[in-house]
Specification:
Layout lengths: L1 H4 L4 E4 L9 H8 L4 E4 L2 H8 L6 E5 L5 E6 L5 H13 L2
Parallel strand pairs: 1-2
Antiparallel strand pairs: 3-4
Length: 90
């Protein structure tokens, strides 16, 4: 999706210190090709005011959040792709 829409994809994991070492292996096994940061769960929840994970945000090139979604059910990726297309101007 990043290449198709000329966007940068980022992820932030809120795994605790015990689970954090497992993240690189999961990322590699899934073939995720984007930057993944680690954040403090409490700080992230306060900053973005979410209750459910995953929390998905799409920002435009000016840093304005134009799409927000929480949780996941099959098919959500279609809605996400529409938001990414909009953010990229395509």
């Amino acid at each position: 999706m990043a290449d198709k829409y000329n966007v940068e994809l980022l992820a932030i994991t809120i795994d605790n210190q015990r689970a954090l070492p497992k993240v690189p292996g999961i990322v590699e096994s899934k073939g995720w090709d984007y930057t993944i940061f680690a954040g403090n769960e409490e700080e992230m929840r306060n900053a973005f005011n979410f209750q459910t994970i995953p929390q998905t945000l799409v920002a435009d090139k000016h840093g304005n959040i134009i799409f927000e979604h929480n949780g996941y059910v099959a098919g959500d990726e279609e809605e996400l792709e529409k938001a990414v297309a909009k953010a990229s101007g395509k």
